Amino acid sequence: MEEKNTDVIQGTLDLLILKTLSLAPLHGFGIARRVEQVSRGVFKVNPGSLLVALQRLERAGWLDAEWRQTENARRAKFYTLTKAGKKQLEVETEDWTRRAGAVMRLLKAEG
Amino acid sequence: MSLWRHVSRGLRVLTHRRATDQDIADEVQHYLDQMAPEDRSAARATMAREHVRSYGWENAIDQVLVDTRYAARRLLASPGFTTVCALTLAVGIGTSTAIFSAVYPILFEPLPYPDAGRILMISDRGAGGSRVDVTFGTYAELGARSRSFSALAVVEPWQPTLTSRAEPERLDGQRVSASYFRTLGITPRLGRDFDAADDRPHGPNVVLVSNALWQKDASILGKQITLDGDRYTVIGVMPAGFDNVVSPSAQVWSLLQYESSAPFFRDAGSHYTREWGHHLAMIGRLRSGVTLDAARREIDDLARIPTPEFVRPSWASLADGLTVHALQDDVTSGVRPALLAILGAVLLVLTIACVNVTNLLLARGVQRRGEFAMRAALGAGRARIIGQLVTESLLLALLGGILGLGLAAIATRTLVALSPPELPRVDAIGINGSVFLYAFGVTTVCGLLVGLVPALQNTANLRQRQPGQQREQREQREQREQREQREQHEQREQREQRQQRQQAQQPQQRHQRHQRHHSIRKALVVTEVALSLVLLVGAGLLLRSLRSLFGVPPGFNPSHVLTMQVQDAQSRYAFFTRALDAVRRVPGVTSAGYTSQLPLSGRVDGYGAHMESNTRTDESGDFSALRYTASPGYVETMGIALRRGRLLDEHDIAGQPHAILVSESFAKRNLAGQDPLGQRLRFGPDTVWSTIVGVVGDVKQQSLDGDETDAVYNTTSQWVWVDVKQSFVVHTQGGPAALAPAVKAAIWSVDKDVPIVQIATMNDLVSRSEAKRQFALTVFEAFGLAALALAAIGLYGVLSGGVTERLREIGLRSALGASPSDIVTLIIRQGMTLATLGIALGLFGAIVASRAIASLLFGISSLDPTTYVGVIAVLLGVSGLACWLPAMRASGVAPLIALRTP
């Protein structure tokens, strides 16, 4: 099972977090679960990397963090996308699309 | 916004470490609680927590704080070691800071005027390129013709007597053209600057005063004061920080009010006027956009090409051109070589101090190898241990730096007290911002340097896990946690195997390590010895120069001679004559006289004159000589030798044929092969001829190493004027200083309003004339001794450490039959090899360095064999002593040690 998992590609974790949070505020595990679900298990996020990334994005001003009650009445730190975060998401999305397109073109050209 | 978040979040972590840690722990816990049970583990939680915790700039600071606390504990744990290191560094940092505080404002800092680099000093060029004061005529011509300057000013010394107070007081001052302060770029802090309209003959009597003078009497502004019997109105006060580099002791300034047409001599009929006397210093401020070179070229052209409007006499023809220097160069050029030599010396001391502490830290590092190995085994990377060690040395340096600043504060005051009179800008010497910055910089560099070598050396070959890489790879590793643990287990096994193998090799390896470690320490000791040799050779050369200087016959007999300068603003011949009579009647006085200039007093009064016939090839017959216009009895009182003819006496008075004495060198230079007696010379084309009646020995006027001794002597009543200032010389039976009050009283019995200054014995003047060299020598001696002590301590430390490490070997040697004397020889030979190597290297350094102080040497070559041999002997002796102590200890090692030491 572990051989099929893929590390999140270096540098895309930020994009995945921003995108996930653009739908709704979530706590750390919620983000990880959604990334894994939506990617159908292709991406597996490890807690250390994710939480550090959240700290970094928070300090960059793209996320706000807040302790809140979860639906099962536990305390958890929820992250919300800020206005700057939305702008950053657009920038990173565009950047990703451009790169991915380039990679695809290269692959097709070779094939 | 994001910067703000970075700072505020980081600060919150630093100030609320526990709360933020809890925050992280809660978040990680919440995360793990929701994971599948098989994915959870305590290790995973810890790793994630650590990972999150390690994010942020604040962790770097945190680490520094932790390191600093640990370093402080380590230093406190060995107070003796810490004290020795800190004191050694304090000596290095303190002395170099003190010297820097003196050298920086003089040599490197711009003068304290706006745009000071644009202020130039312009001098006439005399024979041999020497700088000569300019004439007012030249100033007037340049002012009219030159386009390079936005302001030009001339200034001459002025020493008026202030008589409005209870006692007559002689002030130092300057007579300046109205543009003087404007040229410097300084305005009075109170009142007003001079008005150009007032700078005319018979203009209003106005003065500016220094802040110090104003502070003595704050009501002085706007009032009148009496200077030399004339009333002057105080129109302004200069700022407190005004540093008048042209004449630092000046307290009053008045206008030159130059009367160009006043006769040069008071004799009627002379058509040469005062404006052609070389007695003014000229400064100029460059117009913006004009470079120094351009100004030089323009001034040169002006000098070479006269115009009809500006007629020049032959002695101010500017035929040799004018010299233009930055004012700063002009002010500092005299002391520059001495200061640079001292700066070099102090850097050597600093280096030796650093080398010594490096050596101590190296030795200590050996004792701490166990500690490093332990920390490495616990996962500290080499970089981390080096960081820790450098933090320790930085803390040590900081301690030394703080002590050093205290030392510098004391040393700076001592330096100022010892400083030779020609040292400019003494007021600027002190601990200030730039000095503080220097001390801080030096401290940091020292801390890094002394820490880095031992840290690198002592952490080499540490067997460790590689945690630096561990951290980088943590993400991946976390993924493969299980596998990693398995691997780690294997690694551990491998490591254990490796260790077992290594333990088998260990003795050999340890030996190699010690070998290398020791060779570094030896190299450092060799360096120390070499550097101290350089310093000691410098000190030795200066000492021998001073000895040979004081061995130079000054041309007079300084013992039992008291001197003082008496000033009579009205230049009354009768007063000086009566005062001299009064002095001669004082009990204990055997003879007395006075002169217009006193040898080695700092004044040099040269004079242009003309020979009736002379043997020199240049046809002009003009020459310059020192002029001593003196009372009869002056030459006798000073003990100046009469070589031929007769001395001047009471019959050589006005109305009699003018008689004159010349010095031996004068006669030789200007009248070679002729009998000087009976030859005639005169000063200026229209004056009376004087006949040479005697030849006297040469006298050093400017300094003992000077050779300008061409001189003429005549009597006051046969000279064209009576000098305002006369130096009385009094030969006494007993100690000359004791008679000063009686002599002063005798002069004041004739006129109580004349100031008497510069009271000194002739012996004082002789030793003071070499103050600059004496100063350099004192500093070099102090530094040389410090260097010698440090080198000896270093040598002792290395040998004594070597003995401790070689106890087993030494024990074995004595067990195998080596006698105590064999062992003493062994250790001493080892130490002396190092010392000899250091001396050999130092010789090269000393040969190069002594060339740098060549201008301070006198009478000996910079390769003076006596100095070198003496210094080498001293170094060998001290090194021998430093070797002897560890050698004695080694000879006492019992053979049994060989068995007991593992």
What key attributes describe this structure?
heterodimer, A: 111 residues, Arc Repressor Mutant, subunit A, three-stranded antiparallel beta sheet, two-stranded parallel ribbon, 4 helices, 5 strands, 57% helix, 18% strand, disordered N terminus, B: 902 residues, alpha+beta, six-stranded mixed beta barrel, elongated
Describe the SSE topology.
The complex is a heterodimer of chains A (111) and B (902).
Chain A: E1 6-7, H1 13-23, E2 26-27, H2 28-38, E3 43-44, H3 47-59, E4 63-69, E5 75-81, H4 83-110
Chain B: H1 2-15, H2 17-33, H3 42-53, H4 58-77, H5 79-108, E1 119-125, E2 131-132, H6 136-145, E3 149-158, E4 161-162, E5 169-170, E6 173-176, H7 180-184, E7 190-191, E8 206-209, H8 211-216, E9 224-227, E10 230-237, E11 252-255, E12 281-286, H9 292-304, E13 322-326, H10 327-332, H11 336-367, H12 369-377, H13 382-418, H14 433-459, H15 467-472, H16 474-479, H17 481-550, E14 561-567, H18 573-584, E15 589-595, E16 606-611, E17 622-630, H19 634-638, E18 642-645, E19 659-663, H20 664-670, E20 680-682, E21 690-696, E22 711-715, E23 725-732, H21 740-750, E24 756-761, H22 762-768, H23 771-805, H24 807-815, H25 820-852, H26 865-891, H27 897-900
In short:
The complex is a heterodimer of chains A (111) and B (902). In chain A, 57% of the residues lie in helices and 18% in strands.
